[in-house]
Amino acid sequence: MVKHVILWTLKEEFRNDEIKAGIKNGLEGLKGKIPGLIDIRVNIDPLESSNCDVMLDSCFANEEALKAYAVHPVHVDIANTKVRPYTASRVCMDYID
In the chain, how many domains are there? Predict the structure, then answer.
């Protein structure tokens, strides 16, 4: 299995519950719609000690499934409408679990 973890910091003007909920609902709604996507969870409630706003924790069958997810039209639509417009920075780590 391949883990795909992303940490986002939102733009200051978009650090609110509505934007975070939209990101969470959009990304978690991808489960069952993209081949090879085993699990996807989004955390929007970081502790005060955190230095990011949103975390994506997802699992894929293999590296090929992760690559297909990156360009899948349903994922790209969610990324372009629910995530990218609101984020200031993104950090990603992919690894074999």
Answer: 1
Tell which residue, 33, 21, 32, 31, has the closest CA to residue 83: 21
Write the CATH number for 19.
Answer: 3.30.70.100
Residues 6+ apart with CB under 8 A from 38: 1, 59, 60, 61
Range of the domain at 11: 2-96
Q: Chain-wide mean pLDDT for the chain? A: 98
For the chain, the maximum distance between any two Cα atoms, rounded to a whole number of angstroms, is 37
User: What's the predicted TM-score (pTM) here?
Assistant: 0.95
Report pLDDT digits (tens) over 24-46. 999 999 999 999 999 999 999 99
